[in-house]
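pipeline/complex-builder :: batch 7 item 3
reading input block
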Amino acid sequence: MQQLFFFGKHTISNTLNIYIKTSNGSTLSMNLNPQWDIKNVKEIVGPKLGLQPEELKIIFAGKELSDTVIIADCDLGQCSVLHAVKTKRPVKFDNSGVFSEELEDVGSKPLCETLKDLSNNEDLPDNNQQPKAHFYVYCATCKAMKQGKLRVRCHFCKSGAFTVHSDPQSWTDVLESKRITGQCENRPEECENILNNTEPTFADFYFKCAEHTSLGEDDEAVPLFLVRSNVRSIPCLACGDVCNPILVFPCLEGHVTCLECFNVYCSSRLRDRQFYQHAEYGYTLPCPTGCEHSYITEVHHFRLLSEPQYAQYQKFATEEYVLNAGGVLCPQPNCGMGIIPEGDCRKIACIGGCGFVFCRLCLQGYHIGPCDLPDPDNTDRKDCDYNVDPVRASQARWDEASKVTIKVSTKPCPKCKTPTERDGGCMHMVCTRSGCGFNWCWVCQTPWTRDCMGSHWFG
Amino acid sequence: MANIAAQRIKREFKEVIKSEEVAKCAIKVELVNDNYTELKGEIAGPPDTPYEGGNFILEIKVPETYPFNPPKVRFITKIWHPNISSVTGAICLDILKDQWAAAMTLRTVLLSLQALLSAAEPDDPQDAVVAKQFKENAEMFHLTACHWTNIYAGGPSVNKDFDDKIKKLVEMGVDEHEARVALSSYNWDMERATEQLFS
């Protein structure tokens, strides 16, 4: 017992290095004992600012912390920033002041203690038994998904010396601006008057990574708000296991997958190039059960893919964007530069890329006159001046093997020209490139008709 | 095969085994290999259809990306149906293609196929010949489908007339199945079937 006690004491005596920003603009660096309460902090900070401890407010994550709050309960990481401002409350024994209603309960618990697990639906009943909120973020510093911490600042002056009037009740409150009002303690007069008092002062919510030591107030992380703690023990729709955390799709039903299955889902769709280029959200996916209006709106969720897969995701997204904008991709192997040409010019030069000059229509080297459509039976040049064994010549060409494979085993979609392979089934082809979906006949290489159905369904 | 696909198929396999449809002998599923990549399904022909009394075997191949992509299913038992190829057994059913959703299971697939046998969708036909007959000559379609069910799926209804016609063609040196396809395609018109077979 004795030993255990000392061990425990040893760990809790680890100090937290904290910065305290004061209303006069200075920053104090302090080492705090996590077992201290806020009153202890005020007693240390007060004299440094020439104020009585009672004249101070300590603000953190949108809350004025009450004197009895213990530092360790505040979700503070190393190098976190607390804000100390001079209170406007009449100090001591004055019950008739303008702020009388606040006098009884000075300050509150920290945000992490009061906040319930946010739901994506706003209309869920407020259930006091809900567990504490957990947030997941993509942290660019750690390059991974981490637990996140919710922080608050003033919408106008971006100062963290800001208290909210109410806790956010849903993700909408957190993600959309101007939902929750509050009190700026940094420059209250300016922030309140910034729009000539036509609007209240709003809170801005943002997230930090809980894993690494804070690199300052700008060290933000992107909230992966579809990733949530599986507090209701919902099984994954794909593997059936109850995992934690999970990803909740933004469909009405709120379908759930575990993160491993989400990864498999994304990578299989990525491999088949089946992501959808959404005008508003970007290159994204819907719920795998095919629900309506279920596109993932925050594409940082695809950061859950591995690094090489995410790189491929970005490449495809860029390519789709270029193609949707009427552009072309440089056909040279290992180039693929996106080019958005001006006007209807057929001659395209890969400027800024490999320099290849090609025809916009047939994607072959630029030529004068009509496009020479490839004849599958004869891919060799006929106009060679000296004798070369055509077989050897055709084998000795860079990249020829893959070109030949593509040429032999695929046919282009008549609409979008995507090389398409047929691996069994009937002759009725549906282009799998997202946004194309063209119905065509493998035999005729034209739109699919009832005649095709009647005469050569199976070739 | 990815773990997820195998794990999921294991669960679905159990779901089918325990389902009430199995108890009623309407559907059945068996493992073909140990790693759950291939299964053998079986559905009973629904009552009041030409398929009644027959048992239809299905080949089910599970892709690595299951359940995010549909299983590949085809009929092993030869069947005369507008949405199923009489040649390859390929099935034209939207949920096995672009309408697949990750929440569907082996059980729902088997039940959907059984439903397809009850209610053909001839406007989206896999086998155009059968579809044409289905729409234009319903009685002939019914007789032909009954005959195929009898021959290939163990159905009860024997059609002596059809059997005799096939026998004649077989005696002329034609493969029995080819003879059946030709006769079925030409509404059991001996002359036209012979013409097609020997042209």
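note: Chain A touches chain B at residues 237-241, 255, 260-261, 264-265, 268-269, 288-290, 424-426, 430, 453-454, 457-458 (CB under 8 Å).
queue -> next item
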